[in-house]
Amino acid sequence: MEPADPVAAADIDAFERDGAVCLRGHLNAEQIQLLRAGIDANLANLSPRAKVASAPDDPGYFVEDFCTWQDNAFYRRFIFDSALARTAAQLMRSRTVRLYHDHMLTKEPGTRQRTPWHQDQPYYNIEGRQNVSMWIPVDPVRRESTLELVAGSHAGPWLMPRTFLDNQARWFPEGSLANLPDIDADRSAHRILGWALEPGDIVCFQMLTLHGSAGVGGTTRRRVFSVRFLGDDIRHAPRAWRTSPEFPGLLDELPAGAPMEHPLFPLLWPSAP
After folding, report:
1. Which of 77, 70, 72 has its CA nearest to residue 31?
2. Domain ranges across the chain
3. How many CA atoms lie within 13 A of 78 on its CB side?
4. Residue 92: is its pLDDT beyond 90?
5. How high is the pLDDT of residue 236?
6. What is the pLDDT of residues 93-110, one digit of tens each?
7. Positive/negative CA dihedral, 157, 19, 250, 180
8. Cα 16 → chain centroid
9. pTM for the full model?
10. In the CATH hierarchy, which fold is given to the domain comprising 10-128+139-201+208-222?
11. Per the CB 3.0–4.6 Å rule, which of 11, 21, 60, 199 could disulfide with 32?
12. Neighbours of 134 (CB within 10 A)
């Protein structure tokens, strides 16, 4: 696969300032076709970690799956044979890049279920600032159905992670973190970023950036592959609860505070000669 172009300095600055940036046309047609094949193979053979994220009475269907790159040859080729790790290194200003995990999100036409506003990092088992999530659609995404992000929210603080369907605090104990503000009650009080997207575009954001998305109307499904990368300063932060995703037994092999040097998180950059 052809390497992606280097990231423009203005896009790196936007990522640092806003916690999110859209890289237009960053992937070529071959890469998008490979990723479509990976998502379709994933949908046909969901892992035990998959979950339905829409209610039974939703006229659409929202399904997610996690950490399937080891079993999905299309995903492996997309991650390991592309220039995404180099892109991540530039955005994070990091000497090294490790894969954290993959996450497939598919909303079928007519799905009402929105993805609530949230930060990603409080659900995870990591500490550190040098990280990036890439949200990669393989179908066109209208502005009203796209990922939205609150510019500058990556500066913190950490906010209470909750379950999406019933709003329960199953991670940090209730009251230990501040609750999310009601973004939609006064959208004008926040600088909300969001882009209509075509296959080939990538939305890149820091894992503390507040983000969410609406349902999907019309007749077009929204298949998205999200891949998360870790940079130099990330350390293992074991939790007393089940993280999302979880990495069973990891603490036995990777002490608290250790760099993420483990086969589950392969080093992608610098690439092997």
Report:
1. 77
2. 10-128+139-201+208-222
3. 29
4. yes
5. 98
6. 999 999 999 999 999 999
7. positive
8. 17
9. 0.95
10. Jelly Rolls (2.60.120)
11. 199
12. 20
Place of tokens 């993959």: 102
pLDDT in tens, 113-124: 999 999 999 999
Cis geometry, peptide bond prior to residue 59 (ω within 30 degrees of 0): no
CA distance 134 to 207: 10
CA distances from 266 to 49, 78, 101, 254 (A): 20, 14, 10, 14
- Kindly state the percentage of the chain with pLDDT values over 90: 86
Q: What is the pLDDT of residue 105?
A: 97
Cα separation of 237 and 230, whole Å?
Answer: 13
Pairing of strands 211-213, 192-194: unpaired
DSSP state of 185: G
Token pair, residue 168, equals: 């329960």
What is the 3 state secondary structure string of 110-168? CECCCEEEECCHHHCCEECCCEEEEEEECCCECHHHCEEEECCHHHCCCECCCCCCCCC
